Amino acid sequence: MKKYINEAVKKVSRNISFSTPGHKGIFSLPSQVEFDVTETIGTDNLLHPQDVILKSMENLKRIYGSKKSYYLTGGSTISNHIALKSITKEGDRVLIERNAHRSILNGCILNKLKTEFMYPSYDKKTKLFLPLSPQIIESYLKKYKDIKLVILTSPTYYGMVLNIREIAEVVHKYGAYLFVDEAHGSHLNFLDKNLSALSGGADIIVQSPHKTLPCLTGSSFIHVGSSKVNIERLEKVISMISSTSPSYLMLLSMERALEYMEEEGRENLKNVLNLIKELKNDLKDKYFFYESDFHDPTKLLFAKENVSGSQILRELFKKNIRLEMADINYALALVGPVDSEKTLVPLKKAMREINLKEENFKDLYRQVLPEKIMEMYETFERESQFINYTEAAGRISADTICPYPPGSPIIVPGELIDQDVIDTIGTYLKAEIEVTGINKNLIEVIK
């Protein structure tokens, strides 16, 4: 049998990685088959921890400074569903940032939650979505009086970090819970300037340590940040939704990553940030590097005038440098606690050497504000059909339509498809940007 996946992974693994997972393929992890065990005498039970797993999670709690913390091995998609179910009940209204991860949207559907969306501002100068301010969030809370839960993403895929401390004060003033999807922020706690959601006062936080710490893909943390969260309900939901066959390899890798961060990683991050500063200074004549007080400094977000981020990504790949992602405007390199001169010097050299050609393109961003006809969860029970998206004006979407990147939905289930939506979809497709929810020009709509 030809091993297609094996051949592809072997080829890619030769690259120097500036993408997930955070171990970058260079950090030693317990991945041998001999460590792939299950619940037995001496290994404890993740869904009912009494011994070694409980003790290890106490370390997790201590390191992050939470009220309580949990290991999960089903990825943060499952953890997001757990967080939603632990705080809300069917029919509750939640307030969500429009660029939320699809697992958040799907969790709202599964839990039959009423949803209202907040739209971040788009900065035409930098061509980036700006972080939601506490004032904007408060304006939505004033408009919708019955919000049970506010759901935010920080950092975003592009590294934008929200002012969680001030936002938490606003959210709690209106009697709501604050849930932060911090999938890309497990490392923030280890920076000198701690921008983490836990330190800011969020009630419940989900992290994907495999994205920015040296552990295996699919690893996840849930942190409880306040006494408002019902621990008994949370643990009941964890037991209901999580697999009864957790990966001990993931558990071992999370524990190993925490050990490294305490003993070496925190200090190495300081060295890495200095190397990033040197790289930016040496290449400032060739690239624009995005920086702000509320931007994750380990997210190397850069651009070149009249050159697409996609071209930069492709050319660096030819030099055996693998970036996390690129869009029309930017390229993104994820730098982490296991990086060093051995990885950052080759990146700098390749960025200097690649031959980039000017392109004729324009910013694709279009703000679309579709009308909500029904709740997302209501569409899940309705019959649907697939039609050409160009003929869908006046129909109700049965799926999330999202250009990737940047990952902010054009339309979600239950919203009305109008000509503006159709034109926006067409703009992205013509630019050869992947649009999830569109397959061979077909879109799913309610019958």
From TrEMBL:
Identify the keywords attached in UniProt to this record, alphabetized.
Decarboxylase, Lyase, Pyridoxal phosphate
Q: Give residue ranges for domain Orn/Lys/Arg decarboxylases family 1 pyridoxal-P attachment site.
A: 33-284
Cofactor names from the entry are:
pyridoxal 5'-phosphate
Q: Which GO terms describe its molecular function?
A: lysine decarboxylase activity
> A Pfam family matched by this chain, by name?
OKR_DC_1
EC class of the enzyme, as a word = lyase
Extent of the signal sequence: none
Q: Which residues form the Orn/Lys/Arg decarboxylase C-terminal domain?
A: 351-431
Q: What is its EC number?
A: 4.1.1.18
Into which family does the record put it? Answer: Belongs to the Orn/Lys/Arg decarboxylase class-I family.
Identify the PANTHER family for this entry: ARGININE DECARBOXYLASE
Write the protein's name: Lysine decarboxylase
